[in-house]
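Handout, section B. The chain below has 157 residues.
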Amino acid sequence: MKKLLIFWVLHTLPLASVHANSAGENAVNTVLSTLHQAASDADWHTYFSLYTEDSIYIGTDAKERWNKSTFKKYVGHSKGWTYTLRTRNITVAPDGTSAWFDEILDSAKYGTSRGTGVLIRTETGWKVAQYHLTFPLPNTLAVGITQQIQIFEQQQK
C-alpha cells in the first residue's frame, strides 16, 4: 500500500504543475487579449493598468524605448490602434512568477507584426513588464530593407 501511495504522489505532482502552468497561461492570455482590446478602444485607463509601474514599451522604431509614463504621454491623445491576434505562444516560468510570450498580429495599417514580452505575477494579477512590437522581416527581403535602413540612418546624422 505504501508503494502505491508513493507511486500516486510522484505521478500526480507533475499533473498539478501542468494545471498550474495552464492556469497561468490562460491568465496571461486574458491579460494580453484585454491589452489589445483596450488599445483598439483607446481605453488608456484599462490599457495602462495592465502594465507594471516600471514597465518598458519598445516600439518598431529604434528610438522607441519608453517607460510607462513616457509611453502614456505618447499615446495619451491617440484614438488607439487595432492589432488582431493570429497566433500566440506563452511560457510560464516553473515558479509561476513570470511568463514570456510571442504573438503574431495583423493590422490594417501595417499588415503582419510581432509582439513579444514579459509579464510578472503581482499581488493584483499578471502585469506586462515589457512589450516589444516588431515587423517580422522575411529573409528574402532582409538585405534590401536593411540597406534602406542604413541609408536612412546615415541621412539622420
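Note. Strands lie at 51-58, 65-67, 84-92, 98-107, 111-122, 125-134. Compare this with the example in section A.
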